Amino acid sequence: MTESQSKRLFGFDRRIALLGLLAWGLLAMAVTWVAGEHERERALTSMHNRLASLAQLRLEMLSQSLERYSQSVRFLADTPPVAGLARASLGQDFDAEEQSSGELWRRRMAAIFQAFAATAPETLQLRLIGAADDGRELVHVLNRPNGAVSLPPSAMQRKNASDYYKQAIRLSPGEVYLSDIRLSRDRSRDEKEPPLPVLRLATPIHDPRGKLFAVLSINLDARHLISYLRVGSGERNVRVYISNQDGDFLDHPDPNKTFGQDRGKRWRWQDEFQPLPAPRTTTACSCCAPRPGTSTR
Length: 297
Description:
Number of helices: 9
Number of strands: 14
Largest sheet: 8 strands, antiparallel
Helix content: 40-55%
Order of helices and strands: HEEHHEEHEHEEHEEEEHEEHHE
């Protein structure tokens, strides 16, 4: 083979052949990279859609639970003892329409509260708080582990400084205030027990003249609400994180990072995660669950 023949390969100049092979190699790498990116994009889109669907389902469950509790508050506010006590407040603690004393109406209200607590074990406390005398409680039932008990008049407290009372008296009739879920050492539990996540609901009540008469409120153990959002995800290797509107974790794989605003050391969503761009082929979902800290009708 001559020198000129050695520089040729299958009829092509060897240098051209090598450049061609290099070009094909680069092209193959580029195609592989594009295909990989496409598959990655498809996988991210699929995961995004599954998680969005899961989040929407959980939010719908939460919305239904909150609406059910709001309806319970409205139901209790519409019971006869509430109307009787409102009338009695205008007649020296006597309801002339039903010929009943305020004390009798208070006992009937306490019995209704106790019956309700027996059917809803997540209920911690039920109160009817009068607008008079700086928001002194008229009826107060604690749902203790061994049964619901009605507190005596000597144990009634003034609640006009509590946030849920202040928020409720601003509402129109029929509206229900939902508080943020916060840790609380609830009076229905032993003081030695750890604090519970508590959700408070409250609605205003007006007398026959349209003047504010009282606020009816319920304290709920929110652990069951959090469990609704946590369990049954249907996805392997999926961790559930729950935060409030400010990003504070209400549920986290590490319990020490929950309720930081109540523990004195905040740990929020933005402290743990950096936002990723949403897949280009999807749009963000719109969720309609009522947010704690708002009112519902």
